[in-house]
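Listing S7. Sequence submitted for prediction.
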Amino acid sequence: MKTLFLSAALPVLILAAGPALAQGAPADPAAASAATPPPHFPRDLSPEGVRAADDHLALEEVDGAEARAFVAAENEKSLAALTGDRRYEPFRQQAQAILTATDRIPGVSFLGEGLGNFWQDAANPKGVWRRTTLDSYRTAQPQWETLLDIDALAKAEGKDWVFKGANCLAPDETRCLINLSDGGKDAVTVREFDLTTRRFVDGGFVIPEGKHRISWLDRDTLLIATDFGPGTMTESGYPYIIKSLKRGHPLEHATEVYRGEQGDGGYGVSPMVFRDKAGAVEAVLFSRPLDTFRSETWWLKDGLPVRLHIPSRVTLHGMLGQALVFGLDEDWNGSIKSFKAGALVAPPLVDLDTENSTLVFGNVHVEMFTPTERQSVADVAVLDDRLVVALNDNVRGRLLTLMPRGEQPVRSSEWAVPANSAVGLGDSSKAKGQVFVSTQGFLTPPTLSLADVSTAALTELKSAPAKFDASTHVVEQFEATSTDGTKIPYFVTRPKDLAMDGTGPTILFGYGGFQASFPPAYKPEMGKLWLENGGVFVQANIRGGGEFGPGWHQAALRENRQRAFDDFAAVARDLERRRITSPRHLGIYGRSNGGVLTSVSITQHPELFNAAVIESPLIDMLRYQELPAGASWIGEYGDPRIPGDAEFIARYSAYQQLRPEVKYPRVYITTNTRDDRVHPGHARKFAARLGDQGHDHLYYEDTAGGHSNDADPVANARRWARHYVYLAQQLMD
């Protein structure tokens, strides 16, 4: 299977206690909340009680009349404040020039004998899917062949089509399943495309709009998990049944091959077809999520699904010969042999279909790599006889090759990559023994290289030009001490001549969830619109992320969520202690799960910040499971329908914790009407309650683009211009 995905592989949220009052408030936020509950705090935390205390339920109706009127009024006010600023138009022009520049590195994937790329610019804002040869790609001006013009397709069909990737059948990769989203939603329509004719296949596979999970089994068969009708979707809105669909048959004639349960959590069942370098099927696996992070793995053996006896918290990477390669997100303990959480292992698949508590795998060396306490495996490419691994080492990138040698220890070698940079893996090819490798830093533009394991050569293919003047700034890494003594690393990108008197206008970014890591990254629009104007950018690697492996993530799950908020506040205080900035000049930015972080940070510690961009956010954490696709994240946050879970969630949920007497900074909340991953009701209701209580705020809701904001670079330029105008108003003026 060859897949080009333009958004995250999983719909990950790409995402304490009571509020802290002004200075002098009790040190324990929970005690403050218990003593004086905020207005609109539910009298009881049952779903009925939470609903009864919510006076803005109408704003959860995506296209409801009251919601539309609210959005229109808020948008008019916010656009006047932001687009009317003298900086808006220069910011917009600069951002658009960056996002539509033709000198960007074209990201590529292996496509048959060539390379595929999806490209957007000013002339083609919706983009073109195209291909070239590797030899041509190495040149300054590659010769591209257009496969599918999304702008032309959208115009011809009268649809707001957004390209969401292609899934092509190995080994020749001439037949592809094209994913098309109407307006940028996660839900897609799937249509079969022939690369030889560059046309959609007459009578080919067509799957109506939905959140599908699809793999090619062979040229005439798909394995598909989708909405097969009433009762075939989980509470989260994801499929739990996998069927085999033959060419020429309607979806209703598909044959069931695996079934989970309707009460399953997570993101729905997924079929996975692993192939060797010649394209032959090595194994067919099914993943059945039990919640956000736990899942069962099943092997289609001799036509029947057989459960594999591996831990429920794993990340599957592929087949290395007869071995299944996966990362452990929990310890795997046996009476004779054990593996630690964070390790990368490759046991024989045939030894996993029966209970084997001793973890004895004959003479095969199973353990491929075990990170240290301050390391984590960032990505893995499974080639024919070895693995290429991108490693985070104290949030800095390294690149390894791991080769198994039977019963002998794995042979490890390291590739030379730039120091203090992020290392990422792109597409890989078993047939060619190659993988694309990217490197970048906060002040260093991305470089794309090709790693060839047969020659051990890492050859640079493309280097992006600088999009802002980086000579004025320097990058440093510091640590803050959180409330429980844990050391929290963070990066500071600041002017070399910063006065260190607390006046540095500073954006503090954080996420802290879903085991997502944030190593150094080149952000050209931020550099141009913020750094070049004397700004400081800070990236906090707080708990909840994956920078130091599964333990770093799991330390902030569920009832321990407050740790992530405490970590973020500790970084803010450390910035003030170092005189890099001060509350007057410190703003925060977070989106998706980062919207939980930023909204809670504002309600708990309004004294620490003067700005917050809260984008595509979760905020009403006592009703998040009611808003699609919230129930899929219960493993991360807990279930508000369970009294004990509701109690710890209520202590921090920002929507319920707002108080009229507290002085909050003027925040900017923004979302998208067509976001079908994080419901726009979260942002709407928070803005409405701020307004009810008399707090100055800005709210803007775009009408298209979805959660990923990847539908249109021209619209995305307007988005970034609004962000930085607001931040400049709050932190620089």
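Caption to Listing S7: primary sequence and predicted structure tokens for the chain studied. The first strand starts at residue 2 and ends at 4. Residues 1-34 have pLDDT under 50 and may be disordered.
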